[in-house]
Structures are given as C-alpha cells and as structure tokens.
C-alpha cells in the first residue's frame, strides 16, 4: 500500500463553512460529512478531485500545501528539477512569453525546468502499443490521478481495466532521473491536487496557485531579462494533453460515433456515468478516456478565472508555436533515447472504511423527516443529495444531518414559531398568577402584622374581663355582660389566630363535609334583604368533599355578601352545586351590577373596593382566593356590567378537589 496515498489531500477550514451544502452536491463520491452544521472531508473516501475547493464560495475548503516541502528540497543541496505540466499556458496568461515563466521558475532555485508534455509524448506511444496489441479488451485511461483514486477506492472490479501505463508526470520523472545523476529531486508543477499523492517517484507536487505564492514570497516578477527555454528533452504533440480528448489526439484514435473505439467523458458526473456503463458491459471493447475535471485546464490548482474555451485556445496557440519551431528530427532522437524506459504502472485496490446503513435505520430516518409516502419525497436537492432517499441513507451512515433538508427545516421552524407563541401565552398566564401570589403574600404579611399587634391587647382584655367576672357574684346583672365580653374577645382571638394561619398560608384543617348541607348552613348565617331571592340547585350524586369548615365558611359568606351588596335594587342570588368523581363545582350567581372590565383585574388585590368608606374593606376576595388556593382549588369570575351587552350580573365559580385520598385515610 502506498503510504503517500493515505495523506490528507483536501481539508475544511473550520468555521468558514456556511452550510450551503454545495460541496456535498459537487462531491462525486460523497466524501463530505456534515457534523454540527460544518462540512468535513473524510480523507479515506476523498479521491482528491478538488471539486469542493473549486465550488466553495467561502474558501472553506483548501488542499495540502507543499510549498514548505519544496523550499526544503531547494535548500537540501540536491539539484531539483521542476516539471511543468502542459496546462501552464492556460494559467500564466499574464506572463508575456512562456520563456519568462521558465526563467522565473529557475529564479526560485530549480536546477532545471522541463516539460511534462515530453512525458505525455512517451505515454502516448505506450497507449498506441497497448491499443494495437490486439487484446480484445476495453481500457480506461489512467493519466488522471483522481480517476485512478476513484477506481482504486470504489471500483475494485475495474482495477485490471486501468491502462497499466504511467501518467505523463511519472513518465517524465523517469526520463529526468534517467537523464540526470543520482540524488536528483523532482517537483511537479501543475493544475492538479490529486497529483500531490499520486506517486513516490515525484518528491513534491505544487499547484500553479502555490507556484504563484512562491513567486510572491520571493518577490519574483515577470521580467524579459529572466527569459530562458525549457531544458531538454523538449515536447512534441504531448503538449495538447491537458485539453479533453488530448490523449486521443496523441494516440491518433478517434471518438467518431461511426467507427470510434473511444468514449470520452470528463467532469464529475460524466466520468461516473461512463464508468457505470463500462462496468455494466454495454460499451463492449470500447476504451474510456476519462478525466475528473473538464480537461486538466479546469483543474482546482488553477487560479486564472478564464473560461474553458479561452483556456483551450491558450493551449492550442502554445502547441502551434511549439510545433512550428521544433526540430522534428531532434525530437525523434529524444523519443528514441528514452523509448526503451519502463513506462508501465501497477494499480491496486485500496480499502476504505465502509459505511453501512440498514433498511430499518433508513426508514426510521425517513419517518423522522416526515417523508412517509412517495409524494413526500420532493427530491429538491437542497441538501446536496440527488434524492431524499440518498439523503436518508447518508444520515443513517452518519455522513449527513437531518437539518440539511430544507423542507424539513422550514416545517420545524414553523412548529418552533407556534411553540414560541404558545410559550408566550403560557408565560403571560404565569406572570399573572405570579402577580396574584405576590398580592397574596403582601396581604399575608399585613394580616400577620395586624394579628400580632392585636394579640397582646386582646390577651389583656381577656385577662381583666375574667378577673372582673370572678370578682362579680354570678347573679349580678353585670356578670352576664362580662361573660359576653369574655366570649367575644375569645372569638376575636380565634379570628386573629385564623389570620395568622392564613399568613402562614398552608394551614388547612380538612374534614369530610357534606357540601349541600354546608352551603345551606352558610345561607342561614347571612342577612338577606327581602328584595333578594335566594335559590339553590344541587346536582351532586356525592355531596362529600374534604374542606376546612371554618375557612370555607368565610369563602361562602364573603361571596354571598358581595352578591347581595351588588344588588341594591334587589335580584336573584343562585347557588349551584355540581361535580364529578374528582371535583366539586360551586357557582354563586347574582343578577347585580356586574364588574367592569377595568375593575376585573383588581378585585383580588387587597384593599381594592368600590364600596363606600366604612362599608367595604377590600379584604373579602383576596381572602377567598387564598383559602381556595390552600384547598388546591380554582376560582373563576365571569361578569357583565354593560346592560347593552345583555343582563348584568356576576358568577364566581369555585372548583374544589374532593381529595378522596384523604377521605379514605379519615375513614380508616
Ligand atoms: P369589598 O366587598 O369589601 O369591597 P371584596 O374584596 O369582597 O371587598 O370585593 C372587592 C370588590 O369587588 C368590590 O368592592 C366590588 O367592586 C367587586 N365585587 C366583588 N364581588 C362582586 C359582585 N358579586 N358583583 C359586583 N362586584 C363585585
Ligand atoms: Mg366583600
């Protein structure tokens, strides 16, 4: 196994990735994994075609930088030969003549500068031999290293179909080593990223981009004075190699539909389709000329933004000039000189980590994306995969994320907005409830304060009343009055005690109570004017409920008094009882003045009253609220104060839990 080929060729620049998934879409082998929204190249799956580098508008993909390796070689003391790929005329259109470029490369410290195109000349001869060998077999050209990576990694069955011939770069390296003394180093300079790990026969491979950076770093600028020519051996027609069909033209074969024995395919989609057809056997014994880019002139190591046909023209112009000025005899001699070299190449299948996904897992992913039926599969391609199914498979394999699906993400966003609205609603309610309990707390503090202050004078009154009573003969008329004082003070102390309990907020003495009887009892303890009619309706199969009798009596009498006070001109007060297994409902309805919407918010606030001074205290409803809450019950008000909107009146609804758990305990 070639250790060089395991090197990381293409990287992601962290945090530059803006989640457009273009690289996922453009990667012909899906070697890009999305993790936490960031695209990551999976080295062991990458074929080094550099498509992702070309298409990323954010510069979030970059490739192995070989500049430091090349500087080290140049400083090592060994002679270093620069081998320039034949696509250079399409890159260096800003340099007046190729000889200037050659001179600039020499300025960097290279011992000699040669044309890879001569290697292409030699390789073409080998192809001609192979194709004329009469073997009834179709071959795949092996001059594109990304394509070779593709077959070695993904198409093990086609390894033996790769033409067993070295690439022009490797062929040229062999020529250079043959020509020069031992210890020579060779550096390839070209448009290709995959070349960097193609062969150990080359010491380093620079892209044109890196070459330009080295010129900048060394302040080498185009200058006619530098001009010098390539070192021999000079190339012939091999210079045409980097345009598509270049190899074909060199081998003198054609891809005519009628009698062509070649199929040409280039670019990330076409090369895969062609390989698939070749694999299926439909192409018979035809050969494939394949390039991952649309000709090497479109390689990812180019910086020139020139269009494809403009670049092609640059190459043709150069080749024409070259062929016009070359000495064919000299060239033939060179070819002869190096013709006996070994130009064969051996290819081996390479293992990559296989990622698998069970049907079950894929279906689960599809379900979670809401893609349940065929019509849910929009196949919009926004995720970077051609179909929803492919995307689901990639998710199941851990290569992709569900959020890459645009329709899914939009749907989720909608749901999120709905939830946010709901939460806002809930928050508003919570805030209201909080406000209410704050009110309750302030009232608790107040009552505790008052109760505490009253307790001492009440104690003194009770004590002296008792002393006086004991000193008075029982039959004296004053004795009865004193007895009344003692009793009533005792009552005051009880109320104060109750207030203190309320302040402590959690003191309820629950006992099983018959609610129907209890309501009737409460009605008996209030004063009701003649013009108010009292009605009661009980729809309760089971009247029993756990309540604190003293406190719940305060609730009922307060609500009943309020109802009566709201009907100065008379009316009907109706109490309704209903319930189910868990709850008991108590409604106190009146046909009184109603509560205005602006007062509605304030009625549970301590000391809020609309009644005349000395009449209302504004403590009734806060107390009612507190007691109901202590019973884990609910309280609701509905009211209409506007005669234009129908009959006025108010209904307070109290819902109390039966607390059957406690009832059972009490019955045991
Ligand atoms: P108070 O009765 O001492 O005024 P409450 O806390 O019992 O204090 O009531 C506060 C206010 O709520 C009342 O002043 C009145 O404006 C309003 N209110 C309460 N119950 C009713 C009702 N049944 N009909 C109309 N208004 C009511
Ligand atoms: Mg009141």
Question: What does this protein look like?
Answer:
This protein has helices spanning 22-26, 51-55, 67-75, 88-91, 98-107, 116-131, 145-154, 168-179, 208-217, 246-251, 268-280, 308-325, 328-339, 359-368, 388-396, 406-471, 477-504, 515-524, 549-565, 597-600, 620-630, 660-667; strands spanning 10-12, 32-35, 38-41, 61-63, 80-84, 112-115, 185-190, 204-207, 262-266, 287-291, 511-514, 532-539, 544-547, 571-579, 583-590, 634-640, 649-657. It is α/β, with parallel strands linked by helices and 668 residues long. The strands form six sheets. It has a five-stranded mixed sheet, with helices on one face. It has a four-stranded parallel sheet with strand order 6-5-7-8, with helices on both faces. Strands 1-4 form a two-stranded antiparallel ribbon. The model has no long low-confidence stretch (mean pLDDT 87). It is built from 22 helices and 17 strands. It folds into four domains: 65-338, no CATH class; 362-404, no CATH class; 427-504, Helix Hairpins, CATH 1.10.287; 511-667, 2-Layer Sandwich (Heat Shock Protein 90), CATH 3.30.565. The site of adenosine-5'-diphosphate has 21 residues, from helix 19 and helix 21. Adenosine-5'-diphosphate binds at residues 558, 562-563, 566, 590, 592-595, 599, 603, 608-611, 616-618, 620-621, 650.
């Amino acid at each position: 196994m070639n250790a060089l080929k395991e090197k990381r060729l293409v990287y992601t620049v962290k945090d530059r990735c803006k989640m457009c998934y273009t690289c996922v879409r453009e990667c012909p082998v899906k070697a890009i994994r999305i993790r936490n929204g960031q695209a990551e190249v999976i080295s062991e799956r990458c074929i080094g075609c550099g498509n992702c580098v070309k298409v990323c508008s954010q510069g979030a993909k970059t490739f192995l930088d070989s500049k430091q390796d090349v500087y080290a070689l140049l400083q090592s003391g060994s002679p270093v030969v620069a081998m320039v790929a034949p696509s250079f005329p399409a890159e260096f259109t800003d340099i007046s003549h190729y000889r200037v470029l050659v001179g600039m490369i020499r300025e960097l410290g290279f011992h000699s500068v040669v044309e890879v195109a001569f290697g292409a000349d030699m390789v073409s001869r080998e192809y001609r031999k192979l194709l004329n060998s009469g073997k009834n077999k179709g071959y795949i050209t092996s001059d594109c290293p990304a394509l070779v990576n593709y077959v070695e990694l993904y198409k093990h069955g086609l390894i033996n179909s790769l033409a067993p011939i070295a690439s022009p770069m490797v062929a040229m390296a062999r020529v250079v080593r043959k020509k020069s003394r031992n210890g020579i180093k060779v550096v390839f300079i070209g448009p290709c990223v995959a070349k960097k790990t193609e062969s150990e026969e080359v010491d380093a491979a620079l892209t044109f981009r890196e070459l330009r950076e080295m010129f900048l770093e060394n302040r080498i600028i185009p200058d006619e004075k530098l001009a010098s020519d390539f070192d021999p051996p000079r190339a012939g027609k091999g210079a045409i190699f980097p345009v598509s069909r270049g190899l074909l033209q060199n081998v003198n074969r054609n891809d005519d539909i009628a009698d062509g024995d070649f199929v040409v395919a280039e670019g990330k989609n076409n090369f895969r389709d062609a390989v698939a057809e070749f694999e299926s056997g439909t192409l018979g014994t035809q050969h494939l000329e394949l390039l991952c880019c649309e000709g090497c002139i479109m390689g990812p190591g180019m910086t020139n933004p020139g269009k494809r046909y403009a670049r092609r023209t640059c190459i043709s112009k150069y080749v024409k000039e070259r062929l016009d000025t070359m000495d064919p005899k000299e060239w033939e001699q060179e070819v002869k000189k190096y013709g006996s070299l070994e130009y064969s190449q051996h290819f081996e299948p390479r293992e990559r980590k296989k990622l698998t996904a069970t049907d079950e897992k894929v279906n689960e992913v599809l379900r979670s994306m809401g893609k349940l039926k065929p019509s849910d599969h929009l196949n919009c391609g926004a995720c970077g995969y051609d179909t929803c199914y492919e995307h689901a498979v990639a998710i199941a394999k851990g290569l992709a994320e569900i959020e890459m699906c645009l329709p899914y993400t939009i749907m989720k966003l909608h749901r999120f907005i709905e939830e946010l609205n709901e939460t806002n609603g809930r928050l508003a309610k919570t805030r209201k409830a909080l406000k209410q309990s704050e009110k309750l707390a302030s009232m608790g503090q107040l009552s505790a304060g008052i109760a505490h202050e009253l307790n001492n004078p009440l104690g003194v009154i009770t004590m002296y009343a008792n002393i006086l009573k004991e000193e008075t003969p029982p039959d004296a008329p004053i004795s009865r009055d004193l007895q009344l004082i003692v009793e009533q003070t005792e009552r005051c102390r009880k109320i104060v005690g109750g207030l203190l309990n309320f302040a402590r907020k959690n003191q309820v003495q629950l006992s099983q109570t018959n609610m129907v009887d209890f309501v009737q009892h409460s009605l008996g303890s209030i004063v009701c004017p003649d013009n108010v009619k009292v009605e009661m309706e009980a729809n309760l199969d089971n009247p029993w409920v756990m309540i604190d009798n003293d406190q719940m009596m305060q609730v009922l009498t307060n609500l009943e008094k309020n109802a009566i006070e709201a009907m100065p001109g008379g009316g009907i007060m109706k109490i309704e009882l209903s319930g189910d297994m868990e709850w008991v409902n108590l409604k106190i309805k009146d046909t009184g003045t109603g509560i205005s919407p602006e007062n509605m918010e304030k009625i549970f606030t301590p000391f809020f009253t609309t009644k005349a001074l000395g009449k209302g205290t504004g403590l009734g409803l806060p107390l009612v609220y507190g007691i109901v809450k202590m019973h884990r019950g609910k309280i609701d008000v509905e009211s209409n104060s506007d005669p234009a909107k129908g009959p006025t009146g108010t209904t307070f609804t109290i819902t109390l839990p039966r607390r059957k758990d406690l009832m059972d305990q009490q019955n045991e």
